[in-house]
């Protein structure tokens, strides 16, 4: 999973990036365009189940699932026309699976706002307008080519007609994500490479100060309502507080978070929401060499799930041995699960469940 962090300059994107990745490799400064190149970091997915399995199996190493976060430089009005190096940044967004849209929800005389004042909905609409304008340019070019091709190949005519409807949708200032007919075969052809940037799933992230973390201010409520209205996800974090968590051990982090009335870090919230938004889940492999979490989409069958480890596992799939996570914890080992009759043998049609502990048999 790759999540692009977007927003206006000076809303806290790079501060949050530093905190999420527990690094200081994204330059953070109090002026626009301090981030010139996108920064990418691989972040382990927090999952207590992995640690509990490791306590029982005692492997040589423990490997978490991961999320790639990309810190994309601040967009401004005119980004779709190349302002502020906008075209390059829009292309970076195009490569991600979801967008974490960071919105400033606090006042501060020490931090300059690019538009001179804090207004979350205006800020959101500025970014989304640029994404829509970028998609309009791309789609117009694609439709010009399709119109010519459809004269030679009549099978392309439905795609062209669907494109005209999508163009009208975008021209009305609406995201490609909200296009009602996007699941149709003709629309899917339009959404393919180079993908529409306004079609990305969005997590609206209200960045607050410490007071805003304790109780929702009016800015936060505006963003929350906007996210609900647009059927998108929402999280509230304090990027500055997340930065302060870096370097603390688990018990210190928990104590620090509880002092603000929260039980999870911003990183945990964002990753959990991202998993839900994209329909992802984890399964586990557990042996003396390693205990490991693997990320898959909900609804995947056993052979496709096996391919996440290696393509040969899918090609030569024979069967899977499966233990539910709760059963593994209850009985304490694979051998005891086998003796208790809770180790199951599943075939090619088995739909993998979240938390399954699996072992694949294959032959290539």
Explained architecture:
This protein is of the alpha/beta class and 364 residues long. Helix content is 42%, strand content 19%. The chain has 15 helices and twelve strands. It has helices spanning 13-21, 48-57, 86-94, 120-152, 157-171, 185-191, 210-214, 218-229, 239-245, 250-258, 266-278, 302-307, 311-315, 325-331, 334-340, and strands spanning 2-6, 39-44, 61-63, 66-71, 98-104, 201-207, 233-237, 280-286, 290-297, 317-323, 344-346, 357-362. The strands form three sheets. The chain has a six-stranded mixed β-sheet with strand order 2-4-1-5-6-7, sandwiched between helices. Strands 3-9-8 form a three-stranded mixed β-sheet. A hairpin with a 3-residue loop joins strand 8 and strand 9 (290-297). The radius of gyration is 23 Å and the shape is flat.
Please outline what is shown here:
The chain contains 15 helices and twelve strands. It has helices spanning 13-21, 48-57, 86-94, 120-152, 157-171, 185-191, 210-214, 218-229, 239-245, 250-258, 266-278, 302-307, 311-315, 325-331, 334-340; strands at 2-6, 39-44, 61-63, 66-71, 98-104, 201-207, 233-237, 280-286, 290-297, 317-323, 344-346, 357-362.
């Amino acid at each position: 999973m790759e999540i692009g962090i977007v927003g206006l300059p000076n809303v806290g994107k790079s501060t949050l990036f530093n905190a999420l990745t527990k690094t200081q490799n994204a330059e953070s400064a109090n002026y626009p365009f301090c981030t010139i190149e996108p920064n990418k970091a691989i972040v382990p997915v927090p999952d207590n189940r992995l640690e509990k399995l490791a306590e029982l199996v005692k492997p040589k190493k423990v490997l978490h699932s991961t999320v790639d976060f990309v810190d994309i430089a601040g967009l401004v009005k005119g980004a779709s026309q190349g302002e502020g190096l906008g075209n390059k940044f829009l292309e970076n967004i195009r490569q991600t699976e979801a967008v974490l849209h960071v919105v400033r929800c606090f006042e501060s005389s020490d931090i300059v706002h690019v538009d001179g004042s804090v207004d979350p909905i205006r800020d959101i609409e500025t970014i989304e307008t640029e994404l829509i304008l970028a998609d309009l340019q791309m789609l117009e070019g694609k439709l010009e080519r399709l119109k010519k091709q459809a004269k030679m190949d009549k099978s392309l005519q439905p795609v062209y007609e669907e494109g005209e409807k999508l163009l009208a949708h975008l021209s009305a200032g609406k995201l490609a994500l909200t296009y009602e007919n996007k699941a149709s075969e003709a629309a899917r052809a339009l959404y393919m490479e180079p993908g529409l940037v306004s079609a990305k799933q969005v997590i609206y992230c209200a960045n607050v100060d410490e007071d805003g973390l304790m109780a929702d201010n009016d800015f936060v409520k505006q963003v929350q309502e906007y996210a609900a209205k647009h059927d998108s996800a929402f999280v509230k974090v304090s990027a500055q507080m997340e930065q302060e968590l870096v370097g603390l051990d688990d018990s210190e982090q928990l104590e620090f978070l509880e002092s603000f009335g929260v039980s999870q870090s911003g990183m945990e919230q964002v990753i959990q929401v991202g998993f839900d938004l994209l329909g992802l889940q984890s399964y586990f492999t557990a042996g003396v060499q390693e205990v490991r979490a693997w990320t898959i989409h909900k609804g995947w069958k056993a052979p496709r799930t096996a391919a996440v480890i290696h393509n040969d596992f899918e090609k030569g799939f024979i069967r899977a041995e499966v233990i539910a996570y709760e059963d593994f914890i209850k009985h304490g080992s694979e051998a005891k699960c086998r003796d208790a009759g809770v180790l199951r043998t599943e075939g090619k049609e088995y739909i993998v469940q979240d938390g399954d502990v699996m072992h694949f048999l294959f032959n290539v």
